[in-house]
Each structure stands twice: as structure tokens, then as C-alpha cells.
Amino acid sequence: MRLLTDEEIGRQLEALDGWSRDGDVIRSTYQAPTFAEGIEFVRLVAADADQMNHHPDIEISYTTVRWALSTHSEGGLTQLDIELAHRIAEAAEQTGAQVSR
Ligand SMILES: C[C@H](O)[C@H](O)[C@H]1CNC2=NC(N)=NC(=O)C2=N1
């Protein structure tokens, strides 16, 4: 999978609420209603990640879930990171997690 251009990344991030670029990584922070729902949120994304064979960095702190996406094998951002960010947004909807700013 090829690296995305700066322009491709910027344009696609406009359609992803709560995500921002930090160099070779895209990041977001979500708040889940409860710790258990935060874990369920992570569990749903874990299943998607295994299916895609593309895995996020995850930091869980009580009801706060922080995500960092990058394609390690390419050393930057690819379409897989954008796709996984969309799947995270869907899992958030299913578990009541909200973008945190
Ligand atoms: C062998 C396997 O395909 C690789 O280790 C995969 C697994 N998941 C991955 N996830 C991410 N985010 N980047 C990778 O380069 C990557 N590589």
C-alpha cells in the first residue's frame, strides 16, 4: 500500500470528525459513557483491525480512549489508516463513545 500525499491526507481528514494529523500518525480521543463501554468500543475495533490486518495504537485511561494510526511497514500514512479511522467512528456510534476535543 503506497503512502498518501499531504493533500490526500488533508482532504480525507476533513470527512473524519475528531481526527488530526501529527506527522506520520493520525490521532483521535474519544470518551465512552462507562469504562465497560470503552472496552466494548476497543473490542469492536480490535475485531476490525484483525480482519484488516492493520492495527491501531490504543491508550485506555478509564473512559478515555486515545487512538494513533500509522502504517508501520510503510513508515507513514496509507489508505488503511483512513479506512481504520472510519471503522473506529462506526464502533464509537455503536457503543456511545463521543469524540473528545
Ligand atoms: C505481518 C503483518 O502483515 C504486519 O505485521 C502488519 C500487521 N499490522 C499492522 N498494522 C499497522 N498499523 N501497520 C503495519 O505495518 C502492520 N503490519
TrEMBL record:
The keyword Lyase applies. It holds the Pfam family Pterin_4a. It is an enzyme of class 4 (lyase). CDD domains: PCD_DCoH. The keyword Nucleotide-binding does not apply. It catalyses: (4aS,6R)-4a-hydroxy-L-erythro-5,6,7,8-tetrahydrobiopterin = (6R)-L-erythro-6,7-dihydrobiopterin + H2O. GO terms for molecular function: 4-alpha-hydroxytetrahydrobiopterin dehydratase activity. Keywords: Lyase. One of its GO terms (biological process) is tetrahydrobiopterin biosynthetic process. Signal peptide: none annotated. Its EC number is 4.2.1.96. SUPFAM superfamilies: PCD-like. Belongs to the pterin-4-alpha-carbinolamine dehydratase family. PANTHER family: PTERIN-4-ALPHA-CARBINOLAMINE DEHYDRATASE. This is Putative pterin-4-alpha-carbinolamine dehydratase. It comes from Flexivirga oryzae.
